[in-house]
């Protein structure tokens, strides 16, 4: 029977999984002292060659059963697993894998010691043999130890096997032969779309690409949208050295991105250094034509079915496919709705076929029920949305227009709309330090104790009016401010007052909100989302609290995860530079510890205006109290108690029952005539 492209890809991907497992096992053997490794470099090949350690010649006996237990103990394995049929290993690992510390293992034969080497079955003659040291078992060779090691290979990961089978099915379903697959990949920067509608497929495939389990190299993934990486991992910059760069896209991210922004990022990626672009999509519906019609190669499959489950169980736990298919027919098993998380939970070593399939059926049923409830919630939301004011057509078009846009709760932004100005509000009604009317709104003109910050806000209000009239360019205005001062000095109050003064929305966020997810990609996504949302609401004020939490870019080794924090500072610098070129975004930062902020954030074009707000003095306190009391100030002053008449001092307390002596003269004590002897 002729081998199909799906079978060929399956065989290739499963061999890669096994190869990586063998290399990992050899690394453990080096740590245990069974093998030694040495790096070699040349023009044609580079890698690490493993050889038999001298210690192995002393601890191993040549008896296969006894040596199997010795190797298991040295590797930290509780007991030797069931022996698997293995083929000899011959690995020539490319330079990319050599960087990670493992690599090039070569052995030509892997047979056990024969009876001529052992002298007699089950026992080993000790002594010198082949130049070995005295006391070492003769004939202990690398092929013999390699075969013992491979008997302790752990079972393959069900998730890795499932991803490999899905990728092979997508390739075999979309292409007829290998030539049709290779031809679109010949350009320097091919654009490949891989669609597999299985939840968690994007994340798992991204991690496998970075680990070298899919392609013949370890990939350094760069997200096209510059947001959450496909693998969800954060890697230090030095770990990407000599890795092959690969630009990636998430189907979920593409679904939530506007077509205009998507085209811009794709254009930038294509104009940069040429490298392949891989779009991995796990969504059910088709993506925008911007990617489906422009991709050089589209690979897709239907997802998880019974045949794939049977093949998975055969690879992972050794259950014959026919047995699995018969059991699934008897159970009326429907794998639709299964996720890779479900496969990881259900397919476990030692479980019988009936138990494994029973757990899979239960998880599939729960997943289907959850999907149905989610669809019902979405339908209820659409019906509720349609029942509002306006025509159905207008509502639907508005919903389509808003699809994919970031919501404020998604990026940790609180939207505060300005309160409408009433009669008497504004600067004409009074100045700082004078009691305003009780109905006056909080505004910059009525604040006290802000000094230069208040003057900056008044000038910004005048410039904003000129900008709206077209008489002033945005880059000629001062729209960046950093407020610093002790806690409680009113930095947030100033931002709320500026919102009412300028009559523009206030978008309040903080570095603490950005750092909540922890993973670098999600943190960067929140940062970018806040500025993107501000651009959509422009003109608006973006208020960033707790700015000192983002820290400084330190030298190597001065702080844990320096690259992590440097990436955050660099992204904020990029966002501030972009905001300065975008009209309508006013950025105000607030901090209690300005010395902890990277100096680059305070340069021209960023948070260039820095105002320190001190604790309020007497004059400022009068203005603050006058603002809060309003017209009640006169009544409060009128109700103040009058000054009490001075009271006579109480007589001093007696000492030892006798009244204390009162001094009636100004003479100094002990000024009697005659000498005094102390």
TrEMBL record:
Compositionally biased intervals (Basic and acidic residues) = 397-409, 669-678
Which residue ranges are recorded for the region named Disordered? 110-134, 366-438, 644-678
Gene3D superfamilies reported in the protein's UniProt record = P-loop containing nucleotide triphosphate hydrolases
According to the UniProt entry, its GO molecular function terms are: ATP binding
Write down the Pfam families for this protein, in alphabetical order.
Answer: AAA
Q: Which residues form a coiled coil?
A: none
Keyword annotations of the record:
ATP-binding, Nucleotide-binding
- Indicate whether ATP-binding appears among the record's keywords: yes
Where would I find the AAA+ ATPase domain in this sequence?
477-617
* Family of the protein in this entry: Belongs to the AAA ATPase family.
Q: What is this protein called?
A: ATP-binding protein
The species this protein belongs to is Shinella oryzae
Q: What broad taxonomic lineage does this protein's source fall under? A: Bacteria, Pseudomonadati, Pseudomonadota, Alphaproteobacteria, Hyphomicrobiales
């Amino acid at each position: 029977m002729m081998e199909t492209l799906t079978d060929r890809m399956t065989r290739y991907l499963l061999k890669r999984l096994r190869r990586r497992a063998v290399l990992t096992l050899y690394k453990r053997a080096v740590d245990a002292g069974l093998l030694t490794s040495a790096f070699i470099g040349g023009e044609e090949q580079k890698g690490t060659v493993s050889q038999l350690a001298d210690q192995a010649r002393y601890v191993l006996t040549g008896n296969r059963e006894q040596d199997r237990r010795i190797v298991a103990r040295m590797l930290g394995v509780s007991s030797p697993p069931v022996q698997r049929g293995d083929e000899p290993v011959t690995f020539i690992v490319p330079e990319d894998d050599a960087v990670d510390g493992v690599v090039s293992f070569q052995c030509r034969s892997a047979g056990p010691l024969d009876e001529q080497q052992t002298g007699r079955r089950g026992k080993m003659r000790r002594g010198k043999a082949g130049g070995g040291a005295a006391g070492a078992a003769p004939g202990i060779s690398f092929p013999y130890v390699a075969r013992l090691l491979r008997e302790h290979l752990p079972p393959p990961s069900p998730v890795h096997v499932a991803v490999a089978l899905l990728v092979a099915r997508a390739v075999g379903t979309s292409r007829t032969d290998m030539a049709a697959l290779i031809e679109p990949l010949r350009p320097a920067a091919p654009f490949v779309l891989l669609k597999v509608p299985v939840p968690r497929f994007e994340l798992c495939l991204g991690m496998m690409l970075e680990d070298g389990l899919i392609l013949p190299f370890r990939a350094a993934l760069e997200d096209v949208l510059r947001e959450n990486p496909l693998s969800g991992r954060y890697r230090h910059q030095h770990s990407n050295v000599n890795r092959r760069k690969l630009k990636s896209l998430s189907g979920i991210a593409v679904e939530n991105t506007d077509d205009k922004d998507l085209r811009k990022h794709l254009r930038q990626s294509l104009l940069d250094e040429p490298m392949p672009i891989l779009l991995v999509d796990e969504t059910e519906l088709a993506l925008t034509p911007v990617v489906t019609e422009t991709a050089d190669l589209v690979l897709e499959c239907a997802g998880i079915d019974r045949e794939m489950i049977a093949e998975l169980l055969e690879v992972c736990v050794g259950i014959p496919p026919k047995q699995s298919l018969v059991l699934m027919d008897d159970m009326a098993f429907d794998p639709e709705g299964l996720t890779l998380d479900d496969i990881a939970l259900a397919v476990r070593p030692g479980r019988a076929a009936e138990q494994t399939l029973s757990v899979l059926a239960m998880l599939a049923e729960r997943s289907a029920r959850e999907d149905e409830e989610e669809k019902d919630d979405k339908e209820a939301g659409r019906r509720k949305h349609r029942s509002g004011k306006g025509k159905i057509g207008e509502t639907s078009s508005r919903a389509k227009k808003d699809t994919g846009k970031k919501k404020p709760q998604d990026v940790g932004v609180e939207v505060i709309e300005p309160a409408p100005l009433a009669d008497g509000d504004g600067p004409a009604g009074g100045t700082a330090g004078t009691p305003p009317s009780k109905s006056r709104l909080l505004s910059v003109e009525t604040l006290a104790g802000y000094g230069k910050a208040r003057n900056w806000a008044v000038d910004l209000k005048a410039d904003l009016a000129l900008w709206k009239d077209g008489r002033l360019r945005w880059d000629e205005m001062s729209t960046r401010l950093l407020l610093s001062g002790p806690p409680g000095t009113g930095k947030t109050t100033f931002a709320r007052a500026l919102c009412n003064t300028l009559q523009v929305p206030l978008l309040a966020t903080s570095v603490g909100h950005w750092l909540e997810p922890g993973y670098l990609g999600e943190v960067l996504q929140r940062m970018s989302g806040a500025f993107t949302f501000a651009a959509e609401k422009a003109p608006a004020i973006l208020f960033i609290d707790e700015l000192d939490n983002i820290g400084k870019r330190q030298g190597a080794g001065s702080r844990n995860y320096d690259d992590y924090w440097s990436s955050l500072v660099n992204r904020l610098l990029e966002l501030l530079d972009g905001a300065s070129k975008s009209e309508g975004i006013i950025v105000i930062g607030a901090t209690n510890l300005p010395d902890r902020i990277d100096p680059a954030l305070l340069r021209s074009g960023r948070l260039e205006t820095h105002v320190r707000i001190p604790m309020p003095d007497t004059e400022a306190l009068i203005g603050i109290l006058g603002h809060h009391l309003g017209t009640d100030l006169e009544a409060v002053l009128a109700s103040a108690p009058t000054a009490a008449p001075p009271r006579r001092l109480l007589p001093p307390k007696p000492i030892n029952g006798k009244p204390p002596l009162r001094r009636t003269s100004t003479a100094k004590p002990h000024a009697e005539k005659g000498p005094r002897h102390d």
